[in-house]
Each structure stands twice: as C-alpha cells, then as structure tokens.
Write a structure and sequence with these properties.
With about 350 residues, the chain is α/β, with parallel strands linked by helices. It folds into 2 domains: about 60 residues, DNA polymerase, domain 1 (Orthogonal Bundle); about 280 residues, Alpha-Beta Barrel (TIM Barrel), CATH 3.20.20. The chain has 13 helices and 14 strands. Bound molecules: iron/sulfur cluster (SF4).
C-alpha cells in the first residue's frame, strides 16, 4: 500500500520532492491542498503539473480516519467514533464554547496506563496512532463541521497517553501548528495531557511550545497509586520535581487536572494537601467532578463538597475552575462509545 501523505512532515516531503528534482516550496503547495482545503484526491490539486499529480498518486495515499458514528448531545457536544484502516476504533469529542470549538483528540487506540476511573484504561492498549491518524482526526472533524463553525482549540485528552507516543505526537503537533500549510493552530490553544510520564515530560517540554496538563487526581502517594498505577513508577515527589524543572514558555502556566471522586480524594484535607503540593508552581487547577459510567466503582461528590474543595484552593490564591462534564446523554465518558462497538482488549 502507498505511504499515507499525512504521515510525512513538511521537511520529509520537501526531501522526497528534492530527490526528484523538484523545489522545496512544492511541499507547502501540496500540503496546503490537504490541510487548508481538505482535498484527499491528488487529481483535484489543479495548480500542480499533471506529471507531479501522477507521481504523488503513485507513491502516496491520503487517508484520514473515517467517521463511523457521530452523536450530538442536547448541550451541543458531539462525539465521533473514527474507524482506522486496520479496523481499530478511536474516539473524539467536539465541545462548543463561546464563539469557537475545542476538539478532544486521541493519541493511542486504547491505553496502557490503567487509571482506575477510566473506561479506556480498562481495555488496555491496542496500539499507538501514526501521525496521520492524529492529524487526520482534526481534518475529518473540520470537514464535518458546518460553516461558519471554527475549530480553534485542541486538547489531547482523548484515548491514550500522548507522551507514550511521543515522536508521532510531536510530528502531528508540528503539522497542526504550521500556518504555511493552512493549519496554524496557536501553540497556546493546544493542550497535551499526561498521566505523569516523567522522562517524556521534560523531552516534550524541550521539543514543543504547546501547553501541558498533568492529570494529578490525588495529593498523596497512597491514593494516587491506587487510582493511577503510573504513580508507583513515578511518585508525586518525582512528578512534582519534573513539573518544577519543566521548561514553560514565558507567560504560561502548567495545568493540573483533578478528577473529584466521592470519599476518595474530595475532602478539605485533600484540598489543603493539594495546595501544599503545588505551592511553588506557576499553575492552575481544573476540578472535574467524576462522570460515572456503567460498572465503575466511583461516584461523583455532592455539589457542596465540590464547592468546598474549590473554596480551599481559591482561598490559597490558586486559579481553580470546576469543569462540568458535557454531553452526558451521548456516552461522553472516554471509551464508552468505542466500548459499545468493539470488543475490549485482552
Ligand atoms: S485516564 Fe488517560 S492515561 Fe489514564 S487510562 Fe484513561 S486514557 Fe489512559
């Protein structure tokens, strides 16, 4: 099968073209057709010579993931199930916000991290996604959106641990932030979330200027290890030390995600521990009341406990925002839609 053009960086395509005696600027010209105009047929690239179109079609295909299912919630949140060429499936969620849209992107089919509150984690890792399958989610959703809707923000909080698939992720990010080929997402409008892969965090910070969110979910090692097996490998002391060393771009802050689970991590004492843990960092905290899914062992805290937790953080002068779940009527918990269509791993 010919190679997927979406797997190539602009530089790699320029090298490929140069080897055939063609100038480097042709790479941006070809990629603009794909990324700015959403064209997937070389024949339609009418400002390229006939010979170049034939040459490209002989060596490449353009195959973003197919949208197999699309559900719209009452609040306007949309959930997509994408089919990949080998039959794997992944999910994406499109979130309407004031005047723009945010897409939640997947980086792996399944996930190896096994976080206990996560449905995707229960099925295990199927495989890493290629760059084409990461940028392809954005292309497919952008094509499915109605005018004049605008996709401006991306969060890598869908299926998978993005930093466990680092090279394809970085390649996808360089395409997504490349204004010359027509993507041009602002780096500060892209957030990559990690469960806390310490060595990869620093490598990522050196290689990319997009924002980083750390999925924390507990302020003591015993609770965090119970919720997130990765904490046994990289406990809080090492994770927070990496956060302090993280090469933040000027004027930016780290984000910490904290899923509030009833009677597990939602007490005022937990909130005070969290304040002490984050004390030296330039950061903000997103509090996410748990969205229960069938068969899970956790529940959402009562509203007054959520507000009391936030109050402790606000009084300690943290930016602490409560992120309400969206799209609850369309199986919006990560992994739910895929779980309904595909057998679980293992
Ligand atoms: S929460 Fe994220 S890192 Fe943890 S198992 Fe789920 S997808 Fe993986």
């Amino acid at each position: 099968m010919p190679c997927d053009l979406l797997d190539l960086s602009r530089e790699e395509l320029a090298v490929w073209l140069a080897a055939r005696g063609l100038p480097a600027w042709r790479a941006a010209q070809v990629l603009r057709w794909v990324y700015a105009r959403g064209v997937t047929d070389f024949e339609a690239m009418t400002d390229l010579s006939r010979e170049l179109r034939v040459l490209l079609a002989e060596h490449f295909r353009i195959a973003p993931p197919m949208i197999r299912e699309r559900l719209v919630a009452m609040d306007g949140t949309e959930k997509f199930l994408f089919g990949l060429e080998d039959g794997e499936t992944i999910e994406g969620v499109l979130l309407p916000e004031r005047g723009h849209f945010t897409l939640c992107v997947s980086s792996q089919a399944g996930c190896a991290q096994g976080c206990r509150f996560c449905l995707t984690g229960r099925g295990g890792l199927r495989r890493n996604l290629r760059p084409a399958e990461i940028v392809g989610q954005v292309l497919a959703v952008r094509r499915a959106m109605a005018e004049p809707e605008r996709l401006t923000n991306l969060v890598f909080m869908g299926m998978g641990e993005p930093l466990a698939n680092l090279e394809p992720l970085l390649q996808a990010l360089s395409l997504l932030t490349d204004a010359e080929i027509g993507m041009g997402f602002a780096a500060r409008r892209i957030t990559v979330s990690t469960a806390g892969l310490v060595p990869q965090m620093i490598a990522f910070g050196r290689a990319s200027r997009v924002s980083l969110a750390v999925s924390l979910n507990a302020a003591d090692d015993a609770t965090r290890s119970r919720l997130m097996p990765i904490n046994r490998l990289w406990p809080l002391g090492e994770l927070l030390a990496a956060c302090r060393r993280y090469p933040l771009p000027p004027g930016r802050r780290l984000t910490f995600e904290y899923i509030l689970l009833r009677d597990v991590n939602d007490s005022p004492a937990d909130a005070r521990r969290l304040c002490r843990l984050l004390a030296p960092l330039r950061c903000k905290v997103n509090l996410i009341p748990f969205n229960p899914h069938p068969g899970c062992a956790f529940a959402r805290p009562a509203e007054e406990k959520i507000l009391a937790f936030q109050k402790v953080l606000l009084e300690a002068r943290y930016t602490a925002i409560i992120r309400r779940s969206k799209g609850e009527d369309i199986l919006a918990a990560c992994g739910q839609l895929r779980g309904r269509r595909a057998p679980a791993a293992n």
